[in-house]
Structures are given as C-alpha cells and as structure tokens.
C-alpha cells in the first residue's frame, strides 16, 4: 500500500472517529439536554430524542451509498453531509431561545441524521475502497468507532455537567472538522478513475436504483447485515438504558455514567484493528460466531452486577468480545460486495445497523420500563446469542467461500 493510501486510511479513520464523538457527546447527559430543549427528561423522552436521528439514518444511508456509487464521487458527498449535520446541531442549540416545542427538536434531529449518516457511511465506504486487507480496513473503521464512542462518553459527560448544551456545540465543531479532513482525501471510488490493484470494474455506470437493486438481490449480504443489526442493537441499548441503569442503580451523575460506558468503548476501540487483522488470518467464523456468544453472555452479567466495580470490570469484557465481532462482521460485507457496489453495500449495512440502534432504544427502553433493568439486559444478551446460533452455518459457509442458503431464497439467486 502506498504512503498516500496509508495517509488516507488515517484521515478517514479520524473522520469516522469525529462523527462518532459528535453523536455520543450527547448520550451521557441526554436527560438534562432533553429537559433544556423542552422535553420531559424521562426515559421515554430520551428514547425518542435518540430514535428520531436513527430513523433518518435508516432512510438515507442506502441512498447516500447508491448515489456515490452511481456518480463515482464520495468526497463531495461526505463534505455536504458533515456540513449539513453541523448546521443542524447549531440550529438545535438555538431552540431554548426560539421557544419552539419538542416536536420541532425531533424534526431537527431527523434532518441532522439525514445529513450525518452520509458523512459516516461514506467515510467507511472509502476505507473499503483502499484495499490492502478488508479486515485491516474495517479494523481501522472499528477502532475509530470505538474510540469515538469512548471519548464521546467521557467528554460528553463532563461537558453536560457544565452546560447541557455544551455537547451540542462540540458536535457541530466536530462535524465541521470532518468536512475539512475528508476534503483532503483522494477519491478511490471504482468509478472515480483512481483504483487499487485488483479492482475490476465495468466502465458503464449504473444508476442509484440499479445499484440498490443489485445489493438487495445479493442474499449473502443478509448474513453480515443481520449481525450488524443485533450488534448495533446492543450498542443502542447501552447508549440509552445503560446510561439510565448506571445512574439509577449506582447513583452516578452524567460524568460517572459516561466513565462506566467508556469501560466498554475503550477496549472495544483499542482491539478493533488487531482483531480485524486476526480475522484476515484465521477467517471470519470464530470472531463472528464465538465472539457473539461471549458478547451476549457478558451483557447479561452486567445486568446482574451486584456492585459498581463489578459492573465496570464486566463492561471491559463486553468491550473485548464486541471488538472480536465488529471488524469481522464489517469485513464480511467487503468480502461479498463487488467493487462498484461498495457504497450501497455499506449503506445497507448501516441501514440495518441504524435499525438495530432504533430497536435497541425501543426494545431496551420498553423492556426496562415494563420488566426492569436486569430483565432488559437478559433480553438483549440472549438476542446476541440467538443470532450467533441461528446464523452460524451461514457464516461458516461464507468464511469458506461457499454459496450461502438464505431462508426463502434459492442458492441459485446468490
């Protein structure tokens, strides 16, 4: 890999990191922020504040990806997405002085999410374009995601104790940084004219609709999409229910809850790259399937923690096992997708991931209110274990290069 490609890998990883920090900054103090913006500040209001952004992620992730594949341009779209997201955060900060209702706040979150997912998903797609090992590139994306979440949870908790709106200003500044960073990166989209060795691409460009149809008609992608859905479900669960749980069960403030959340995101971030490289060497099966089972078990243990130190230590284990799963799952997407449909394929992965976050917020919030915190952890933990058991055969066949039978779809369609 050339020096230019290595530099671009670092720059893109920093962009992914900055987008994640901008999101997670708001999580530790979400109850205080929602109250400042005119909401009730309870679990239900916090849930809808987070859900509104991820609903836009679901709708727009695939559209950004297909548009970038069709035009052969990713960098300008990332810049537009980042600047649009920054503008929406700045508008959100003006809400207390404008005197508008909480419904307008949710609308701003939807518009901001529509822009932000473009910057996030296409930055990850550009890492896919680099070549040099799919596990390695997705490991770089994973470490950026994990470090972004870790830094965001700690800094966001500290900022929110000073001023509930401070994380919003920080998020706007970070997305502005993303626009500046990605503007310096070489566009290696297969249709951009800059290609890595080994990429063989038809010179005839398909339209966004055709590209989306190709991705939809590729059943093998549903396997990593399913794992991405469940993995992000657990992340959404911790981002909402985990914060409330740590504050209610152990009497923590926003900063303290952010620190405990960082006990997960820290090892999750630091181990992403080596785990991605490991999956290149040993295959995807063990990291994805065995890692998911261990991940699910450790989530349940967190919910049963008798003390704060025990919960913190277990959160470290959650991070370790999560790091084993995440880059291998994303690498499966790159393994399966053709070079000229990477944007749509990663967009699809982020659609399912965003649906997972939404489900994590809704399932976690609802089960915690109806059943209790421990029962909510059990539900989410067994969901992670369940997908590993159900899809283990499909992952094994993908890892060995065999065609994959997907329920309801014949293998000939793959």
UniProtKB/TrEMBL annotation:
SUPFAM superfamilies: MFS general substrate transporter
Annotated Gene3D superfamilies: MFS general substrate transporter like domains (1.20.1250.20)
A Gene Ontology molecular function term of the record: transmembrane transporter activity
Keyword Repeat recorded: no
Transmembrane segments: 45-67, 74-92, 98-127, 139-159, 165-185, 223-246, 252-273, 285-304, 310-333, 345-364, 370-391
Bilayer disposition of the protein: Multi-pass membrane protein
Protein name as annotated: MFS transporter
